[in-house]
Amino acid sequence: MDTHNAISYSSVPPWALVGLALLISTLALVYGWRIRTKRLPVPPGPKPWPIIGNALQLPKEKEWLTYQDWSHEYGSDVLYFTSWGRSHVLINSAQAAAELLEKRSTLYSGRPRMPMLNELIGFEWDFAFMPYDDEWKDTRKAFTQHFRPTAAVKYRPIETQKTRELLRDLLETPEDFVELMRLLSGKIIMGLTYGIDVQKTDDPYVSAAQRALRGMNEAGNVGTYLVDFIPALKYVPEWFPGARFRREAREWRVDAEGMVSAPFNAVKSAVENGNAVPSMLHSMLEAVGEDTDSYRRRVIANAAAAAYEGGSETVGHLICNIEDRLKRAMLHDPVVYPDPDRFMPERFLTDKGELDPDVPEPAAAFGFGRRVCPGMYMASDSLWITAASLLWAFRIEKPKDRKNEGPDCTGEYTFGLVSYPVPFECAFNPRSDNVIPLVYSATEDNI
């Protein structure tokens, strides 16, 4: 090779490399679009534009409403659309989801490439976003061993005790109910996963999870970041105009990686020093023993971190996997649930007050097939224990001393991969004078 005539990439201006990457990406998109226009028929959906597809038609918020409208417009609960060369199949009913994701799970258990979420922010350790491969199977298996129905029963004592602490905290600072609910989730999941005792809302582990989940919330939305459709953009330097996404990813990556390493290293050190508290990770490290195989240790570290991430919002927002927000249309299907936007818990009961077998439980929230949330049994237990305890202890009411300056509970939610209730005010009033001493007694005595 003639070294005098070889190209020195270090001497090429960055803008030229970026331009070349964009040119190659554009040509690839054009080629892919032409190939796709000649292939087999696809489900109905909005008509795409060349190259960009339906990118300009994707909603910026409450996308489930648009997708539901598309189902009505095109007369199908399975839709197809494209965006910058990427194909999307949208499933809008539980029946279609069961048919495709459960009966044909070997075909439809994969995950698309997510450059922003996985490659830039660093959530590739979360098996909710992993491709359907051997590492996904091993990580999910390690996780499921500790969250199957028989295993989930073991966690009820810690769920009950931490819920009693929530009742005590609500007696003392009821105005902090949102943060206290999140703290409850952190207490439960950090305790059972790592044996770490969380007591404060500003606990570093809980705070790190909240920051990382904000990044996940932003990056998990279809169409938010162009890099998800043109992966070559991930090589754009941070200083380049329009590369704000690179700076955001760098900041979020610190906490995304820390969710794996920080608690893992803390427990690993405790095990080595002989003072580890029993936990999910402790038992997995004991099973590995002196084995230094990096793959096995990565699998158990990632499985524990997935519990940490997934359980950080269990009570408040129930994160199970990426499709949660898209299942809203399934859970608001008027054919299955008449008047779906109305709060009617009695819809699940017969006239005799028993569960109505003709009204399906909203199990779609936990997913389908091989991607169903493996933490669903523990999550259901936590939700039931928390809801029952709150209703036993408090009347949850509109503040009586408020002069209409604060927001009401409207039932509205924010937009994102995880939808949060719009901030509102409420009062937690003890149901009787006997509640207060009982709550403190149960918390102090751990009964």
Automatic annotation (TrEMBL):
Q: Is Iron tagged as a keyword?
A: yes
Q: Where in the cell is it found?
A: Membrane
Gene Ontology cellular component annotations, sorted alphabetically: membrane
Keyword Oxidoreductase, does the record have it? yes
Name the Pfam families for this protein: p450
Per UniProt, the keywords (alphabetical) are: Heme, Iron, Membrane, Metal-binding, Monooxygenase, Oxidoreductase, Transmembrane, Transmembrane helix
Q: Which cofactor does it need?
A: heme
Transmembrane spans: 12-33
Q: Name one GO molecular function term.
A: heme binding
Where heme binds, per the record, is at: 373
Membrane topology, from the record = Single-pass membrane protein
Please name the pathway: Secondary metabolite biosynthesis
Please report which protein family the annotation says this sequence is part of: Belongs to the cytochrome P450 family.
Please report the name of this protein according to its UniProt entry. Answer: Cytochrome P450
